[in-house]
Amino acid sequence: MADKFEQLLTACLLTPVDTINYDVTDPSCAWGIPANFIGGSGVGKSGRINKVGIKAGLPVWTIYTATKSPEHFSGVFVPTPDGEVATVCGLPQVKAAMDHMGGLIFLDEISCAPGSVQAALLSFVNERQVGEYTLPARTRIVLAMNPSDIAANGQDLEVPMANRMAHFQYAPPTVEQWGDWILKRYREETMDVEVGEALVRQKWNYYYPQVASFANEFMMANNGQYEVKELGDDGEEKKVKRNKLYDQPPVDDPRASGAWPSHRTWFMAISGCTAIRCLDFDPKLEIDMIESLVGKGLATEWAALAAKMDLPSPEEAMGGKWKIPRRTDITRTVLNSASTFVIGRPERLEQCEWAVKCWKLLKKAAKAGNTDIVIKPLEQLVHKKLDIECEDEAVREAALDVCDMVNSSGHVDHVH
């Protein structure tokens, strides 16, 4: 059984990351949440990252950022024979990754990199861009660092740099685990990337609607705010409300060099949780993934809301036996999850079969007095012509009653 470190690193390596409109089956889809592992000196971070990458079937190239200048990542201007200027990358690791059409680039000792190098790394880590080169889509980026207070010439990550990655505190092995390792009793069970990518592609459209719908409801709860405790000017602890979706901390805030919520990190968190489900990893890792990208306070709130809602899968909800609950937040989440699941089916015939069941679920919800929250999932189906304009007669019949109910409710002008 793989331990927590292996599963978290593997989940990051096997998470597709791109714009929200990407198709995970598209060869141009980029893979890998940039993951930063933070721990003391000599605890084995670098060695384990290298070993997991290699066992996963990825060639690994290490770049020691403390020894590099900004030009190594931003590129060097070189005149061309035709009188133009090209921006050339001189890093052999980058050239090797391009020759191999992917792999793992390991940025070690990142807390030893000066601010100018961190600035040059911004587009390298996020856009996979270096000079005029764009790294292949299947190139993963992993980082490691000592805490800045013990690193050689150490400094905290800059705010923009910190917001481009997940931050995991690396826990060194226990005495028992270390003993198993030196006695060769410990066996890593790292998933091969080819196998993992195939699983994620196969299951993505099943699990993504569930995670995305829950995230949508989570963001709406409590007017999009959550409470944190912080020290006031008088030294007394007080509760402060913060924005869940975007909360950039001041540069002197301890959170600035770690995980904090932004549109970018939330998208990576949702994608990471979806990958964990696709890979059938321990569900508790989802909370670690959330915490690593948007912070501990939001991860705690996420876990609490998930426990309260106890959501069914889209298939269960559309199976006919699920009862509409009194809580509108649960109903809204389930309906959005169901409609997103339907439009995510790869074949039109399958879309139509599930659309009939989805319309029946929407009808049940509307009859229970939830006509207002039926509108958004209804619009999703209409947009894909899984409504009264569908080529499938069963879909047209199932949609007709719900559209009539919504039209007569007064919540919208008209649903065709």
What are its keywords?
416 residues, alpha/beta, Rossmann fold, 3 domains, two-stranded antiparallel ribbon, 16 helices, 11 strands
Written description of the protein model:
With 416 residues, this protein is of the alpha/beta class. It folds into three domains: 4-192, Rossmann fold (3-Layer(aba) Sandwich), CATH 3.40.50.300; 199-230 and 240-309, no CATH class; 314-407, no CATH class. Helices cover 47% and strands 12% of the residues. It contains 16 helices and eleven strands. A five-stranded parallel β-sheet has the order 2-5-8-1-9, sandwiched between helices. A two-stranded antiparallel sheet has the order 3-4. A hairpin with a 5-residue loop joins strand 10 and strand 11 (237-243). Helix 8 packs antiparallel against helix 13 (328-343), helix 10 (285-294) runs antiparallel to helix 11 (296-309) and helix 13 packs antiparallel against helix 14 (348-367). The chain is globular. The termini are far apart.
